[in-house]
Amino acid sequence: MTTNAAPAQTSAPRTSLLRSDAAQRFMAFGALILMFIIFSLLSPYFLTGSNISGILIATAVNGILAIGVTFVIITSGIDLSVGTVMTLTTVMMGKVVTDWGMPIPIGLLAGIVTGLAAGFVNGFLITKAKLPPFIATLGMLNVARGLSLVISNVKPIYFDENPAFNQIAMGVFIDLSRFIPGLVINNAVLILFGAAILASLILSKTVLGRYTFALGSNEEAARLSGVNVHRWKIAVYMLTGFFSALAGIVMASRINSAQPSLGQGYELDAIAAAVIGGTSLSGGEGSILGTVIGAFLISTLSNGLKILSVPPEWQIVVTGLIVWLAVWLDIIRRRK
Amino acid sequence: MSDSPGSPDLLVRMEGIDKTFPGVHALDQARFELRPGEIHALVGENGAGKSTLMKILGGVYSKDAGRIVIKGQEVTIPNPRAAQGLGISMIHQELNLMPHLTIAQNIFIGREPRAGLPFWLNERGVNEAANKLFDLMHLKLDPRMKVSDLTVAKQQMVEIAKALSFNSSVLIMDEPTAALTDTEIAELFRIVRSLRESGVGVVHISHRLEELKQISDRITVMRDGRTIDTVNTADVTLDKIISMMVGRTIYESKPELPEKPSQDVVLEARNLNRGAVLKDVSFQLKRGEILGFAGLVGAGRTEVARAIFGADPLDSGEIYINGKKASIKSPSDAVRSGIAYLSEDRKRYGLALKMDVETNVALAAFRKFLGVLGWVNTAGTKAMATKYVEALAIKTPSISQKVQNLSGGNQQKVIIGKWLTADTDILIFDEPTRGIDVGAKSEIYRLLNDLAQQGKSIIMISSELPEVLRMSHRVIVMCEGRITGELSAAEADQERIMTYATMRSQSVIANGSENPPTPAATGV
User: Fold this and answer.
1) Is the CB of residue A275 less than 8 Å from the CB of residue A295?
2) How many CB atoms lie under 10 A from the CB of residue B190?
3) Strand, helix or coil at B516?
4) Dist CA B333 CA B235 (whole Å)
5) In terms of Cα–Cα distance, which of A190, A168, A189, A172 is closest to A108?
6) What does the alpha-carbon distance between residue B473 and residue B495 come to, in Å, rounded to a whole number?
7) Each residue's pLDDT tens digit, B143-172
8) Residue pairs spanning A and B at CB distance below 8 A
9) What is the DSSP code string of A66-99?
10) Helices marked H in chain A
């Protein structure tokens, strides 16, 4: 009479490859390779040294921004202000270096402090004033954009008097053109890879990285475990601000100027790169490697389409489609 | 901590603890004591205040009034971290783990071993510490596994390991056995007993009364936010504890129920199964009947309602409406079949709070009021709203009053009006009087009786036993996803219901599994 029903579904650990977050990274990497093959077949110019150099340098700014935004997305937050905060940091550098004639390192420091400060304000509004991250950083997007215009008097600031400034990003440490004609690795690319390594270490080896995942996985559990949730969340947004400043350094140096009206729209490319690379918008999952692959995927796509003479407006449409595809695949992957 | 178990030195003394949440006086002069080296059970009905009291001790909630004395020192516990600092660990009822992190990372979150540099993690150290902990507990777990890949029972073990890792002198466990099998419970109790040996004071909140006999030294009973008494486990019987738990002194007599319902079966559920939350649930609902669903929190009552309403997918099982098999895949299918579900969380699921009474009444049946080009027939909706404001005695200045300005009882009536407008025959009420004051309660009761008399069929899920007893023609009792008993109005009393509601799966009277069409029938 007694129904000794053994629990019917002792749900065995389902660790299929498809469920792991490495799957999306793997897919993104596969897509990147596929794209290389297709574009090489369609255009003889695609796989040349100078074009590869072009793709590399074109990825630098968006890649660094995307690395920064990956952290907040893993906490299940979002940062819409990374693009305009980057612009604000370039304007601050221009102000300090060109207008005030201070040495370049002071200028770089001013940029980084600006990025950290913007991140702090974002984090403060989100934790203490309890604004949703979307709103807090949407506000910051506009505040930073407006401040850039105010501080620069709506005029670009040039670094022409400091030729060394341009070398930060455009200098060449590694010249491979002897082996492959046209292939040079600009310092901007080294900065991107350096940022990626730094970010990977922070994410996987430090307390900050651990709490980044913890916040996105179950913030209440982290709080009940005694983690100072507010302080660490502010730290994460400041880290994102730091990477925005780093992207600002590369940007300003590359175009040898601070362009106050530039920067809006960059946040969307950065978020797209993170998502394509397998960072989950619902938090708790993501990797720097994935994000960097995502950033390369976006710039390779736009480079290839450009070579094939597809109008730039269509390139934007295609980027949108890729984001849809990536998120949809992510949802499919998660469903079962 | 070197005190002998019988030592009068108390680990914890809480007295005069008061706590009010909006609309609920959760704790009223509650008190509690814990000695070192004892396992102290804390029992009471749903809403008696057990969890709230312990969450105050664990730093999750702050008290409004009262004193907490830990090892002779009066303390304030503003947050969970402060509680940990005082040697108090708490395992919460709802698991509090981070699914994306590994077992070891979860255990040591917030106090990770560092490797030289200030922010640098010592990952190997974390895993080794976790392994040491598991050795102590005789557990076989790989600390590098992700928590999302563990079964619920294993996750529970991780929670316990985490609590132990604090070397706490006070361990609070809120329903730790709810999701565990017998072997796992034995394992847990072995660990808890060894903690007692080492002088830890363990607070064990549980609804499973028979296990308290096995494990606890003393029992404190709470009811309605008050501490009724603390007794030695050896000195009392289970019956005595149950009567302390439910013993309301002022107890309304049973009003005469509306006349016997007819024998037409309007709704029949056959062998509903969903994961671990619903197991072979079968029952019938008759025309004009109020069928009470009793059980403790997590027994699966709301899950039955949601399954019938199409809100959660079933693994297997069939639903018949008026004898015909119904395919209900979504709430809109259910509404079309004439089923309404009135959620316990009215504000979230039941009402458009910022809209007026008229709109809310018409909300589920706007189709009836649509004219040409989708124009809403406002004369129709006004007439309907006016009708129900009168019929249900909804206290509102006008039908254009925003629903958020009405009292809880009147909001509930608006929802009832909404489903009456939609002409539903089967109404499922989930905690119909939660958060409603006493006066309005009896009005809701009268309304339910009227509805039944008019031939509507009602399922009433309620955690308040007096309410179930007063209102139901029949009572179905659930425990752990199963129907453990069915009682007629004449048979039902608080003790019987509590006995069924705490019945462990092993002692369940087999029902329905061999002959699916008959619902759980016990006598009459």
Assistant:
1) no
2) 12
3) coil
4) 55
5) A168
6) 18
7) 999 998 887 778 878 888 888 888 889 999
8) 91
9) HHHHHHHHHTT---TTHHHHHHHHHHHHHIIIII
10) 22-42, 49-74, 82-94, 104-127, 133-152, 163-170, 187-205, 207-224, 229-255, 266-276, 288-307, 312-335
Partners of B110 on chain A (C-beta within 8 Å) are 222, 225-227
Q: How far is A209 from chain B (nearest CA, A)?
A: 9
Burial profile B151-171: b = 16 or more Cβ within 10 angstroms, e = fewer: bbbbbbbbbbbbbbbbebbbb
Burial of A268 per CB tally in 10 Å (0-12, 13-18, 19+): middle
Sort A180 into a burial class: Cβ within 10 Å, 0-12 / 13-18 / 19+.
middle
Closest Cα in chain B, distance from residue A211 (Å): 8
Q: State whether residue B318 is helix, strand or coil.
A: strand
Architecture per CATH, domain B11-87+168-251, reads as: 3-Layer(aba) Sandwich (3.40)
Q: Which helix (H) or strand (E) holds B56?
A: helix B50-57
Residues B364, B349: Cα–Cα separation, whole Å: 13
The shortest CB-CB distance from B506 to any of A2, A13, A285 is to A2
Q: Cβ contact (<8 Å) for B114 and A207?
A: yes
- How would DSSP label each residue in B205-239? E-S-HHHHHHH-SEEEEEETTEEEEEEEGGG--HH
Give the chain B residue whose CA is nearest to the CA of A229: B110
**Distance (Å, whole) CA B98 – CA B352:** 34
Smallest Cα distance from B54 to chain A, Å: 14
Pull the structure tokens for residue A193. Answer: 């890879």
Listed by start position, the domains of chain A span 49-263
Beta B73-75 vs B324-326: how paired, if at all?
unpaired
Does the interface ipTM go beyond 0.85? no
Backbone angles phi, psi at B494, to 5 degrees: -60, -40
Residue B520 has pLDDT above 90, yes or no: no
Local structure of B462: helix, strand or coil: coil
Distance CA B290, CA B305 (A): 14
Contacts of A19 in chain B (CB under 8 A): none
Delimit the domains of chain B by residue range. 11-87+168-251, 100-166, 263-338+425-524, 353-424
Rounded CA gap, B213 and B216, in Å? 6
The secondary element (H helix, E strand) that includes residue B265 is: strand B265-274
Residue B512: its pLDDT value, please? 36
Q: Are B228 and B202 in contact (CB under 8 A)?
A: no
What's the CATH code, domain B263-338+425-524?
A: 3.40.50.300
Which of B109, B123, B508 is facing A214, going by the closest CB pair?
B109
Asked if B279's CB is within 8 angstroms of A225's CB, the reply is no
Task: Give me the DSSP letters along A97-156.
Answer: IIIS---HHHHHHHHHHHHHHHHHHHHHHHHTS---HHHHHHHHHHHHHHHHHHHHTTS-
pLDDT digit string, tens, across residues B460-516: 998 878 788 888 999 999 988 899 999 988 888 888 888 888 875 544 344 433 333
| Cross-strand bridge partners of residue B377 | none
Mean pLDDT of chain A: 89
Q: Which residue of A215, A218, A335 is the best one to mutate when testing the B interface, meaning the one whose CB has the most B CBs within 10 A?
A: A218
Report the alpha-carbon distance of residue B55 to residue B44 in Å, rounded.
15
Gyration radius of chain A over CA positions = 21
Give B174's strand partners.
B205
Question: What's the CA gap between B426 and B457, in Å, rounded?
Answer: 5
Q: Which residues pair with B17 in a beta bridge?
A: B30
Nearest one of B83, B26, B85 to B51, comparing CA atoms? B26
